[in-house]
Amino acid sequence: MGLKDWWRGVTGTGGEEILEKAGNAPARLPERTGYEYGIPDAGLTECNQRMGAATGTDRRTMLTQLREAYLACTWSWSAINAVARTVTAGGLITDWDGDDNDGTKDIPDKPAEVLNLERMLAYCNPQEDIRQILRGVITDLLVFGDAFLEVVRVGRQPVALYSLDAPSMFPTADAHGQITGYVQVTELGQRAEFDPEDVIHISLDSPQSSIFGVSPTQAALLPIMGWLFASGTTKELFKRGNPSEIHVDMPAGTSPSDVNRWVAQYMTRNVGSRNIGTPVMTRGGATVNELNSSRTIDYLAYIDQKRDEILACYGVPPAKVGVIESGNLGGGTGEAQDRTFMVNTVQPLGELVLEKLNWHLARLGFGVTGWKLKFGEVDMRDSETVEKIRDIRVRNGSWTLNRYRTEIGEPPVDGGNDSVLIDRENLVRWDDIDALSKANVANKLRGTALEPGDPVPGEPLALEKPEPQPVPAALQLAPPGNPDGSDPARPDDTTVPTPPRPGDKDEDEEDPQEAWRAAYRQRLAEALATLPAAA
């Protein structure tokens, strides 16, 4: 049985095509000119890494120190585990590149390459599943700055995935930093060599161009050590019962043996949690004075300060590791801390890991195109908040009913693809929003002089403004002059005279405004006289 026949029996049909596609690796790039930081002319080898000749320090010793700091410091452990659990909470899944998650596009059937990739991820190795492996990757990145995965292949086809111990891995490279292989040397002296394509090397960012990353644990090593020393001090302090610092003045002539005897009695009778409250007794004229009061509050404040520095290095808000400080100015709400945590810490780290997995496994390993690996999303918001947001989107027409049903995992319904606008009393389709607008305008103007006719579908609403009623002749105001409105100076001229402007009259002439008022009063009296008398 050949390799292709065996692989067809394991994965189903399409084995030949998959193996052929997996072998389509990109062409080898030209050699680079620049150099990497810390790599001598002889290149990076197992020996100069272990002896510290290349990096200036013994790499294994440094990584072992970081591991011990991670295990000993409570906040380092809590922060790293919070990040690792959050990144991998949704699992590793495959996704179609053309899916925009709005429920409007039909996702095509998964090709054979994607199905075989999923089968390999579903059974990575007999000891670990993919979630455990990726948690270990995230932890190694945050502790050591680098993570290594071993890819077991049949031909060029990946069939298994194993985690590798980061402190025991030594990349080998030429003077320009081009990786030529990997060597693993365990603490027990076991040795293994790997080709470059058999190891997935993931590293964090480095301030200098280097093949090794810098971990947050290394950046937080100083506050971690401060926290450890302060915690050790408070442990010893409370182990002794938090005794006061005292000064004992022995009488002159006291022998050293008597002093030592008194000290031993003091440590036995007064130091320790069981001896709290026991008075200090002296004889022979010795006096006891307290030097300093208890400084426990200062120790605890220092420990809290170191804790905040450690969490800041990891980019983890206090609430994510169980630190709840109500009324803390600038602390933000729980939702704000969740968003900051996801955007600044979780998603960038997850994308860094996905880039390596998509390239080495999906692209080179299985020849997958048009699909990608991604971490499943976990909605960390309150369920009531999520439902309110969904309801608002349906009511204002941003979502259709079928989009809503797709979001909650329900099948679509007939007519569910029409957007609607829902207010407090009405429901209308957005297609009918023009007719609703016209109807609302007509309803507001009903019973008024501007009441329009019935609206015609497809035509704008016509509003006809009525003509104003004419003023009765008896109430029309005539210019000053004769009762019939004519000018006595010019009998044949029926034109209304233009009122004089200020500065156009002589000082002896009558005020034209007063003349107009007199004429108006006269004409008004005549008009009122012609009205019929009340019955």
What does this structure look like?
α5 (about 75-85) packs across α12 and α9 packs antiparallel against α11. This protein has a three-stranded antiparallel beta sheet with strand order 3-2-7. The chain has 16 helices and twelve strands. By secondary structure, it is α+β, with helices and mostly antiparallel strands. Among the domains are: about 40-220 and about 335-365, no CATH class; about 245-295; about 475-530, no CATH class. The longest helix is centred in the middle third of the chain and has 32 residues, at about 335-365. Mean pLDDT is about 80; it is low at about 15-25. The protein has helices at about 5-10, 15-20, 45-50, 60-70, 75-85, 110-120, 130-145, 215-220, 220-240, 255-270, 295-315, 335-365, 385-395, 400-405, 435-445, 510-530; strands at about 90-95, 145-155, 155-165, 170-175, 180-185, 190-195, 200-205, 245-250, 285-290, 370-375, 420, 425-430. It is about 40% helix and about 10% strand. This is Phage portal protein. Keywords: Plasmid.
